[in-house]
Amino acid sequence: MASKTAKVDFSAEAILRKIQERKELLNHINTLKGQLVLEQVTDSLRSLKKHVNFDVVGLLAFMFGFDAIMWIMLAIRHVPKTFARYKNSRCNIIFTIIDHLCPCRFSVTLVDDIVCFLEEFAPESPFLGNYSAVFEEALCTLSKREKLNFGGFIVPPVEDCLRCGSILSAPNPRSSCTLYTITGPKQCAKLVLRCKDCKVSYGRSMIAEGKGNASYYFEAIAAADDLIEVTNVVYMEKRLYRWLPSLTDGFSVSYNELFSREIRENFESDVTGDQNDDKHQNFVPSFSD
Question: Does pLDDT of 151 surpass 80?
């Protein structure tokens, strides 16, 4: 017996009717949004708190916008409650942050009401707690359990071929690499993309054209990258790399102090030479030279 397929009406009247239905639905949503009052929602949730499992963060995002609620939640986590003990300055600090990120959208009173609402009804929300540690712990657990490094995902800085504009593909499987960050090393997964037409491979920092020919990306692309490729399996955050010159200078000072006697004995002629010769007067062996 042949299966029956539902008939679809493609007439102009049916299409217009469907559009009108969707408009009415959106208008109904906007009307409902305009009728929501935070104080009334708070009273309702307090009376039903033990009986209803409700997405309060989603409701606030619906009322005030996802971006605004996200900023408020991050500000709550950033400014400790203890700051409220000094002239209620916590409220003003949070408002100052939100007013900068979402200018002229909220009053001090409304921000304070939203903060109290979130802390009362969504205390376990990831963005209100130590979500970074929980997230990192989850990545470590998954890396051990799955056949994939979840610590980070390193890909080329472009999605399309810089020569012909074609969409790049990933013909080769993922490989493992190590990323050194300012919070410690991470085991990561890496992809190399390739243009089928130009036969050019795109890595994180370099473009390989075959026959041993390789080049770096354009300066604008390289400058926007937040990683440095040390080798094809080792990467480093630029934030961490900035420490290396400073640490090298500090090591030079410590090295010269530790071996000051040897420096005096072995380089005495250079240090105590012609006092009018700046080259000899200032000579001290240093790793930073």
Answer: yes
**Residues 159-182: tens digit of each pLDDT:** 999 999 999 999 999 999 999 998
Question: Alpha-carbon distance 238 to 230, whole Å?
Answer: 11
Count the Cβ atoms, other than its own, within 10 Å of residue 127. Answer: 15
Contact status, residue 118 vs residue 128, Cβ threshold 8 Å: yes
Q: Are 111 and 38 in contact (CB under 8 A)?
A: no
Place of tokens 């916590």: 90
Q: Looking at the DSSP assignment, which residues form a beta bridge with residue 200?
A: 195
Spatial CB neighbours of 197, under 8 Å, sequence gap ≥ 6: 161, 164, 166
C-alpha dihedral sign at 49, 77, 240, 249: negative
Q: For the chain, count helices (H), then strands (E).
A: 13, 9
Tokens of 88: 């209620």
234 and 180 in contact (C-beta within 8 Å)?
Answer: yes
Asked if 91 and 108 touch (Cβ cutoff 8 Å), the reply is yes
pLDDT at residue 287, rounded to an integer = 44
Task: Give tens-digit pLDDT for 256-268.
Answer: 888 888 778 777 6
CB atoms near residue 200 (< 10 Å): 19
- State which H helix or E strand residue 190 sits in: strand 184-190
pLDDT tens digit string along 103-150? 888 899 999 999 998 988 887 776 666 666 777 888 888 888 888 899
**165 contacts 111 by C-beta, under 8 angstroms:** no
Distance, CA of 74 to CA of 128 (rounded, Å): 7
